Amino acid sequence: MKSIKLIIVTLVMCFVFTSCNKNKELHKITDGFVESLQTTYTSYGLINTDKYSKYTKDSLYRIMPIGRLINVKIEKEVKDEEYEELKNDLKEHYKDNKNVNDVYICNGGTVMIDCRN
User: What whole-number percentage of the chain has pLDDT above 70?
Assistant: First the structure.
């Protein structure tokens, strides 16, 4: 009986730890762009933005810097609620980062991370 409880607790803990940070790879990529705007680039410019674009390994997200904005697009057809969840996740991730002014859903329906001065 104790071993069954231990297995259940272990499975629950594994689920909690893996589901809490489902966007870890996305955060790592966006963190790299946010940091590079402070150390390497003053702006990514408006031309040839595809040159800097990155995708998550599962190809679910495309991350593309435009000027001092970072555009995050979900690469499948989704409902507006999924973009709202993505915006909230990124807003929470960057809430204490002084280099990020705002995270919002732009008119094109994608999420923007605003790093403008």
Answer: 82
